[in-house]
Amino acid sequence: MKDLLRIMIFLSVILIVFFYFDSPAEENEMLEAPQTQDPLPAQDLVENPMDVERPMEGLSTYIGKPSKDWIADFGKPSRIEPSAFGYEWWVYDASYSNYLMAGIKEGEVVQVYTAGIATDPSPYKIGQTLDDLYRFTIVENEITVKYGTNIYIFNLSSDDLKKRLLASFGDVYAQLYIDGEDQKLEAVRFMDAETLVRHQPYDMMFSGDLLPSLTPSSGLQQSIDEANSKQIIDLTNVYRLRHQKNPLATNPAVSMLAKEHSQNTAKQNFSEEETELKSLEERLTNANIGFEEAAENTATKYSDAAEAVHGWINSPNHRDTLLSSRFNQIGVGVFGKYYTQDFLKQKPAAAEKQ
Predict the structure, then answer these.
(1) pTM for this one?
(2) CDD domains this protein is in (predicted)?
(3) Closest CA to 142 of 129, 156, 132, 130
């Protein structure tokens, strides 16, 4: 009898602990981008171009062409959004399988990013295996870039060589984003030399001058933050559909909450004022946002939306959340280089009231 009583007490304690500590809202740890060293000046750097011909077809052929040529083939974009690097993003999101973004600067195409499986990033193909990429691509851990009289050398880490390759085609450069778990190509970014140098996605040495940094005004930065938020939602659904998951509906109220959290996180790290960061469950409850389940991904120090989503896809816990079948709503908020991505499961009636 005493043993039975002890067992009942033990089970009661377990149930109480489960009730109080099993929150329906999960929060993954903040993901920090791999940090690049400050650019290092070096003497007597020598240009070492790779003898690889530029593709004759596909998206890379538009780099350096007038934007009118791009419009002639792809039409007007769904959205035009600013970036932090001096170009505008022309976003084509009518079909996630054809998802494209073109970077336009002073009437010229300086960058093309695609994650759409039906697009043509020749000589590559979205979904191509990492083994195939290594078989048909000259992969080096150092890439030399010449811009004007300046020479820049980018050094790729061992992790970059598995998840974020860089290839050179004369004066066009291709970043290849790899899904580390599936070992497949998830996205491609083609750039001219100036755009690559401004992004500085890898450790860099240089001979000559560094390009002056661009500092957006506060008003422009707000618009950039909004653009990054929308692009993260786009890319989340692109990757979900590719993994046979339903796309998520955007919840504006949750996006506002996510933006506030990104801002508070930045304040906590850079301000002397003490900023309390409430839990996701507290934030949703205080905002009267109903949910059955919720989860959150956060990230910092990534240069833009595409880089942040690539980081989450290659982090096991963040990936599981991003691709989870449990959720039907999403809200994203960006503040500078702080990114918050919130997922909710709501009943249809609750979602309609938002």
Answers:
(1) 0.90
(2) CAP_bacterial
(3) 156
